Amino acid sequence: MRSLTYVEPGVIAWQDAPEPVLAQEHAALVRPLAVARCDLDPIQGAFGIFPGPFPVGHETVAEVTALGSDVAGLHVGDLVLVPFQVSCGGCGACREGRFGGCQTYPARAGAAFGFGAAGGGHGGAMSDLLLVPHAQHMLVPAPRSIPAAALATLPDNVVDGYRTVGRHLAERPGSDVLVVGGAAASIGLYAVACAVALGAGSVRYIDSDDERLAVAARLGAQAIRHDGDWPPSFDRAGIVIENTGTAQGLECAVRSTDAYGYLTSVAIHFTPAALPLLQMYTRGITFHTSRADSRAYLPEVLALLEAGRLDPLAVPTHVVDWDGADEAWLEPGIKLVLSRPPA
Ligand SMILES: [Zn+2]
Ligand SMILES: [Zn+2]
Question: Residues of the chain whose pLDDT is less than 50?
Answer without folding.
Answer: none
